[in-house]
Specification:
Layout: H1 2-12, H2 27-39, E1 49-53, H3 57-66, H4 72-75, E2 78-85, H5 90-104, H6 108-123, H7 127-151, E3 155-159, H8 164-170, E4 178-187, H9 205-208
Antiparallel strand pairs: 1-2, 2-4, 3-4
Helix pairs in contact: 2-7, 3-8, 5-6
Bound molecules: flavin mononucleotide (FMN).
């Protein structure tokens, strides 16, 4: 039953502390996780982030040092850095508008109203608000990727426990418009990872949800 499966998969997943270094994940599964991230909704559809896939072992070792030694960074089959825009201007909206015209066969006239509307909205925002908004969108994509992985019985650990400045330096993002929000380790849990047996600590539904 699909409903039960979803709940079971979400109960099965946990923040994996120990990945099995020897076990890699299937390429096709990995592509589905990437597709879930790509298809994640974002505010206005603007996708103000990019994902860096880190395959290079040396870079992984450097990131582990910048991640307070967390082993997931080197042991997981795959590692992504989700980097959101720390600044943007009308180019971000133009990119979306051009892609919309191309994808949906729309004319400039048909999209100019929406384009101007979006540009008007963002022109009122502070740089700090734009940066924070971009990060929120990146986290939503992170969630979609993690959910897709759980459905495929693939383990993940989101990693915010990192020295962000150092990570940005390692990934050569310092002079770019992006900065890293969070890392995502993807792979297979090690049998000895005791955290997989822990009960979930979660607020009761009646506490978390309120009906008005
Ligand atoms: C955005 C984010 C950042 C996280 N950063 C870390 C981290 O740096 N290291 C770690 O071991 N776990 C990290 N976690 C895992 C959380 O501690 C974990 O998801 C939470 O305690 C709930 O437990 P569960 O995922 O096992 O159900 C992070 C989770 C999220 C969503």
């Amino acid at each position: 039953m699909k409903r039960e499966e979803i709940v079971n998969d979400l109960g099965w997943r946990y923040a994996t502390k120990r990945f099995n270094r020897e076990e890699s994940i299937h390429e096709k599964d990995y592509q589905v996780i990437k597709e879930a991230i790509r298809l994640a909704p974002t505010s206005y559809g603007l996708q103000p982030f990019k994902i860096i896939e880190i395959e290079d072992r040396e870079t992984r070792a450097q990131l582990q040092a910048a991640g307070y030694g967390q082993k997931q960074i080197v042991d997981a089959s795959r590692l992504m850095a989700i980097a959101s825009l720390k600044r943007f201007d009308d180019d971000l909206i133009d990119r979306y508008i051009n892609l919309s015209m191309e994808t949906r066969g729309l004319t400039e006239d048909e999209v100019s109203g929406y384009s101007n509307f979006m540009k008007g909205v963002f022109s009122q925002w502070t740089e700090e608000a734009k940066k924070s908004w971009s990060e929120k969108q990146a986290y939503l994509a992170l969630g979609f990727g993690m959910l897709a992985a759980a459905e495929l019985k693939i383990d993940t650990c989101a990693l915010e426990g990192i020295d962000v400045q150092e990570v940005n330096k390692i990934l050569q993002l310092e002079d770019s418009d992006y900065h890293v929000s969070v890392l995502l380790a993807i792979g297979k849990r090690a049998e000895e990872d005791q955290n997989q047996h822990l009960k979930k600590v979660r607020l009761e539904t009646s506490v978390l949800f309120e009906t008005i």
